[in-house]
Design a protein that fits this description.
- This protein has 341 residues and is an alpha/beta fold.
- The protein has one domain: Rossmann fold.
- It is built from 13 helices and 12 strands.
- A 7-stranded parallel beta sheet has the order 3-2-1-4-5-6-10, sandwiched between helices. A 3-stranded mixed beta sheet has the order 7-9-11. A two-stranded parallel sheet has the order 8-12.
- Helix 6 crosses helix 8 and helix 8 crosses helix 11.
- The two termini are 31 Å apart.
- 44% of the residues are buried.
């Protein structure tokens, strides 16, 4: 089976491709990515000579390009995904997350193939107590979350109206290798290592359920292979953490690894005005995924944070090129060289 993976040069997509190729020798992967600011071919370094892997640069909003691709199934990661960016300008989120998803659903409909649509727990909004289930109402509070909720509803509608074989997954917050440095955990690591302030929204007590990207990728693969058409599967780590607690854990780990002054690192924490529409707490119930798909998270949070800090310490050149903007020029050159131009 040749699987079209959209957004495969991003954080979760690249981790998924590596895992899929390593654990499923029966599959080939065609990676479609437009290489916007969060797409980075270095995330897939070493796969250039893998015969079961191919890369195409392109946009999921380009219908003519999509029609020319050869594949047997779709796993759809591609999305604009940063809440702060959606607050500043929601237009790219409407285009990629809604129109792009609709284009892929049309493609799955025409090809009569399976499509797995990767979504987020943010579509449920905020919850004070308890956990969201797959049957909880959608109540998005940011433009990003609204665009993902809309794409989920399109996926459901295409199944109900046209019989498209589509499965939806909704995951809690991911962390791990190759995460773009604008997100909480890599941003705090990079700023701490540079001696910069660590901006914390509000009182820092916003709660998220965190999951290591490797655990998420395993669940996506299981949902793709075993999930029932038209169903939603929540993927959560059963691991609720306050933002401020995570930041302190990161700083403790950096202090241990580098012998840095712990109090000086803690002094970098800077509380800033809360962002608009900032959900107080997310918590999702992954029981359906656990019981139907036989999945459970394997990476403990303290272990995962330690290994993530270690990865960023060992790969300073990777995120250094991102922070400087050099990676855009560097990998554009690499891409053109591969094309022979």
């Amino acid at each position: 089976m040749r699987i079209l993976v959209t957004g495969g040069a991003g954080f979760i997509g690249s981790n998924f491709i590596r895992q899929m190729l390593a654990e499923h020798p029966e599959h080939e992967v065609l990676n479609l990515d437009s290489l916007t600011y969060a797409g980075n071919l270095e995330n897939l370094q070493g796969l250039e000579t893998e015969p079961r892997y191919a890369f195409v640069r392109g946009d999921i909003c380009d219908q003519d390009l999509l029609k020319g691709l050869t594949f047997d199934a779709i796993i759809h990661f591609a999305a604009e995904s940063h809440v702060d960016r959606s607050i500043l300008d929601s237009s790219p989120f409407l285009q990629t997350n809604i129109t792009g998803t609709k284009n892929l659903l049309e493609l799955a409909r025409a090809r009569r193939c399976r499509m797995l649509h990767v979504s987020t727990d943010e579509v449920y909004g905020s919850i004070a107590e308890g956990q969201f289930t797959e049957m909880s109402p959608l109540s998005p509070n940011s433009p990003y979350a609204a665009s993902k909720a809309s794409s989920d509803l399109f996926a459901r509608a295409y199944h109900e109206t046209y019989g498209v074989d589509v499965v939806i997954t909704r995951c809690s917050n991911n962390y791990g290798p190759y995460q773009f440095p604008e997100k909480l955990i890599p941003l705090m690591i990079a700023n701490a290592l540079a001696g910069k302030s660590l901006p914390v929204y509000g009182d820092g007590k916003n709660v998220r359920d965190w999951i290591h990207v490797a655990d998420h990728c395993r669940a996506v693969a299981l949902a793709f292979h075993k999930g029932r058409a038209g169903e939603v599967y929540n993927i959560g780590g059963r691991n609720e953490q306050q933002n401020i607690g995570i930041i302190r854990m990161i700083l403790e780990t950096i202090s241990e690894r580098l012998g840095s002054d712990r109090e000086a690192l803690m002094g970098l924490i800077t509380y800033v005005t809360d962002r608009p529409g900032h959900d107080r707490r997310y918590a999702i119930d992954p029981l359906k995924t656990e019981s139907e798909l036989g999945w459970k998270p394997l990476v403990g949070f303290e272990e995962g944070i330690a290994s993530t800090v270690d990865w960023y310490l060992a790969n300073r050149a990777w995120w250094g090129r991102i922070l400087s903007g050099e990676y855009m020029t560097y990998y554009e050159t690499q891409y053109r060289q591969r094309l022979g131009s």
